[in-house]
Model the fold of this input.
Amino acid sequence: MVDKILDGKALSAEMREELKARIEPLQAKGVTPGLGVLLVGEDPASRSYVTAKEKACEQVGIHSQEIRLPEVASREEILEVVHGYNQDPRIHGILVQLPLPDTRMEQDVIAAIDPDKDVDGFHPVNVGRMLLGLPCFLPCTPHGVLQMLKRSGHPVAGQHVVVVGRSNIVGRPLANLLTLKNELGNATVTLCHTGTRDLAFHTRQADIIVAAAGRPNTVTGDMVKEGVVIVDVGVNRVEDASRPRGYRLVGDVDFDGVLEKVGAITPVPGGVGPMTITMLLYNTVWSAECATRGT
Ligand code: GUN
Done:
């Protein structure tokens, strides 16, 4: 059973050691990679994601700075913080935690981030470069999923990968990256979503399933073939009075229901989550390297 589990924590620890080794020469030049964080509002899940990202920065030697704004912050106040980070030479990466309390502002705020500091890979310039297969900041969760599959001995090339979920942050960028002709891609891809007529028909044909639908039990045991590799991106809070916090985290996949059939599966928590954070660190270090090149 244990050898079926794709351990995101262990893979992250390995990658974070690689990053520490890249930070050393930067520090020798007097440069500490810096991440500027903006958190708007009090959403507890966003708060806890941001805390985890800042802790991870500290662990590898990235300086992080956080600015918090109240839920009622105006577009101008938010943009002022982004512009400040854009102009600050100590900041190599900018993270505006999403969702914003007013989601209608999100695209304007993302567009205001300097594409060269867009370590989330959400700016239209980086999204376009990604689609073209050009060098750019890759979005952290899709990149984390791809690194995890590669490093755990499950290359996607030639495989039929079924992605469930079409979000801007995970499903659609991931589906696109999987199609690129490079060492992380070259897969055959099906992208399923809430408009898909018969989800199980598609998932049963998958060599690899990536579940990113944001709903528990989206993929159950009867929907998968023997030997499938499953990456569960879902992080859903379900009420659980037996837990001190009153809830527990579950993915989008019925973990116990699929376990017997799968070749490998990521747990929730401890699967994709740590990899997402690691790829944010990766982009921040790369940004600092680019900014110091030639100095
Ligand atoms: N909200 C959920 N995932 C993410 C992410 O990867 N980056 C940001 N900025 N917000 C998120």
Q: What stands out?
A: The first helix runs from residue 8 to 28. The chain has two domains: 31-116, 140-274. The chain has a mean pLDDT of 97. Strands lie at 34-40, 63-69, 93-96, 160-164, 188-192, 208-211, 229-232, 236-239, 247-250, 264-265.
